[in-house]
């Protein structure tokens, strides 16, 4: 058979591999082109949803996704989303992260212009299911306790979990996780205080 | 192909050659995602889609690919397929993707897919290969869902938690919560996965043994008619 004899030729195999790789890349390029816009839109919607969750209603009438300022924090770039009501800035929203028990915990927080916390949510983490994942608002309301707190309220040494003589609850069997979240939020407030002028500029 | 042969494909996929319980393949995704019934179901369904399409593609090109380079060709094919499924779900089934996103990429390392390409699709026609993909995929889905449900029930005291996120709000009735049960965390953690799989494997072997004994005890005439 014709195909049989061609198939045994030395050149056939590299050629075949090349063609397969080419077709695969072409298929991927097409798929990436076809899905790119939809993925970007879905991710923007996700971001807007999570930002709206930490921001109490009635504080923003602008599109805070496009009103951003990028600042440097510990060598990394932090994007700050600025919520405005009638043109005056009402709140700054940004992500902070801290090392937890099993990898990075990503926290999203909203701070009003006096440096008081409006809301905190955990965006991403890989803590132990059943123990550390109580920082998710779906599991327990623990993370809601941060709202209304500020630097100095409670005092700096009380910004810790109860085990470390602070004011925040910890979970039975998981202290490292809430400790990391408290540290992340406290760090976020300090960051906001240090850069308030640039943020509200 | 006769009806009997079709029956054979499904019997193999669901029981005799079950990906997890008989072939012992794909144990990495099996252990990783079966922390709940919903996760197992989602991973199983996503794998089934990839398995069917990859089986069909492999069967289609089986005469063109020379046996020396078939493995790299199949690997590229499967990886491409998974990436496209990953992007398509991220774009158009975004809510589902958020639940399953982590697992989709894991399908690439699912050796069952390459295994079926090698063991079946490369030797058979397109449609029977698709059927084999469906049967194997359903067997895999059933195994993952079962392990997930057992681990979830023992570990968290729930069944099909968040099923409505995966299947839509009309499936909320599947979600069951055992009242006043704190859960044994161990079952959610990796050791629980190994323990549950071990007991299920032992159970299947016992059952198979029992069935074989019963078949041997029957007179030949009954076996023939059965």
Mean pLDDT of chain A: 87
Uncertain runs of chain A are: none
Whole-number total of structural domains of chain B: 1
What is the count of β-strands of chain B?
A: 2
Report the uncertain regions of chain B: none
Provide the β-strand percentage band of chain A. 15-25%
Shape of chain A: elongated
- What spatial order of strands do you see in the largest sheet of chain B? 1-2
By oligomeric state, this entry counts as heterodimer
- Secondary-structure-based class of chain B equals mainly alpha
Q: Tell me the series of helices and strands of chain B, N- to C-terminal.
A: HHHHHHHEHEHHH
Structural class of chain A: alpha+beta
* Radius of gyration of chain A, taken over Cα atoms and rounded to an integer in Å: 24 Å
Report the sheet with the most strands of chain A, covering strand number, pairing sense and barrel closure: 5 strands, antiparallel
Number of domains of chain A: 2
> What distance lies between the first and last C-alpha atoms of chain A, to the nearest angstrom?
77 Å
- The overall pLDDT of chain B, averaged over residues, is 86
Q: Count the helices of chain A. How many?
A: 4
Could you walk me through the main structural features you see in this protein, from its secondary elements to its overall organization?
The complex is a heterodimer of chains A (about 200) and B (about 230). Chain A folds into 2 domains: about 1-55; about 55-200, no CATH class. Helix content of chain A is about 35%, strand content about 20%. Chain A is built from 4 helices and 5 strands, in the order ααβββββαα. Chain A has a 5-stranded antiparallel sheet with strand order 1-2-3-4-5. Chain A is elongated and about 85 Å long. The mean pLDDT of chain A is about 85. Helix content of chain B is about 75%, strand content about 0%. With about 230 residues, chain B is mostly helical. Chain B has 11 helices and 2 strands; from the N terminus they run αααααααβαβααα. Chain B has one domain (about 5-220). The mean pLDDT of chain B is about 85. The longest helix of chain B has about 30 residues, at about 125-155. The chains are: A alpha+beta (about 200), B mainly alpha (about 230). The interface between A and B is medium-sized, with 25 and 28 residues.
């Amino acid at each position: 058979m014709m195909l049989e004899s061609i198939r045994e030729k030395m050149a056939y195999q590299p050629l075949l591999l090349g063609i397969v790789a080419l077709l695969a890349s072409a298929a991927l390029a097409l798929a990436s082109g076809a899905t790119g816009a939809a993925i970007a839109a879905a991710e923007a919607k996700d971001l807007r949803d999570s930002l709206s969750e930490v921001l109490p209603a009635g504080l923003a009438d602008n599109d805070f996704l496009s009103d951003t300022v990028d600042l440097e924090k510990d060598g990394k770039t932090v994007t700050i989303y600025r919520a405005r009501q009638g043109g005056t800035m009402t709140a700054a929203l940004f992500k902070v992260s801290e090392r937890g028990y099993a990898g990075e915990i990503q926290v999203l927080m909203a701070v009003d212009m006096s440096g008081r916390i409006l809301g905190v949510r955990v965006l991403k983490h890989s803590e132990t299911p059943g123990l550390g994942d109580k920082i998710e608002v779906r599991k327990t309301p623990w993370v809601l306790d941060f709202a209304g707190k500020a630097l100095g309220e409670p005092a700096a040494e009380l910004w810790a979990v109860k085990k470390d003589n602070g004011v925040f609850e910890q979970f039975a069997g998981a202290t490292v996780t809430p400790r990391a979240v408290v540290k992340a939020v406290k760090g976020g407030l300090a960051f906001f205080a240090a850069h308030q002028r640039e943020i509200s500029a | 192909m006769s009806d009997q042969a079709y029956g054979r494909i499904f019997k193999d996929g669901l029981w005799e050659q079950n990906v997890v319980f008989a072939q012992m393949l794909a144990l990495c995704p099996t252990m990783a995602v079966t922390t709940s019934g919903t996760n197992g179901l989602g991973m199983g369904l996503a794998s089934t889609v990839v398995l069917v399409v990859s089986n069909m593609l492999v069967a289609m090109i089986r005469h063109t690919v020379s046996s020396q380079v078939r493995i790299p060709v199949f690997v590229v094919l499967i990886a491409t397929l998974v990436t496209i499924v990953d992007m398509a779900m991220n774009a158009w089934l975004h809510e589902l993707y958020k639940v399953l996103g982590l697992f989709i990429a894991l399908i690439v390392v699912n050796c069952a897919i390459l295994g079926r390409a090698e063991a079946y699709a490369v030797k058979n026609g397109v449609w029977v290969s698709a059927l084999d993909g469906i049967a194997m995929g359903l067997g895999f889905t059933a195994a993952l869902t079962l392990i997930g449900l057992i681990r979830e029930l023992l570990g968290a005291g729930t069944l099909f938690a968040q099923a409505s996120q995966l299947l839509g709000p009309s499936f909320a009735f599947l979600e069951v919560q055992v009242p006043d049960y704190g859960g044994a965390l161990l079952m959610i953690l990796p050791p629980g996965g190994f323990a549950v799989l071990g007991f299920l494997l032992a159970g299947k072997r016992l059952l198979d043994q029992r069935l074989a004994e019963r078949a041997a005890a029957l007179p030949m005439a009954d076996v023939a008619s059965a």
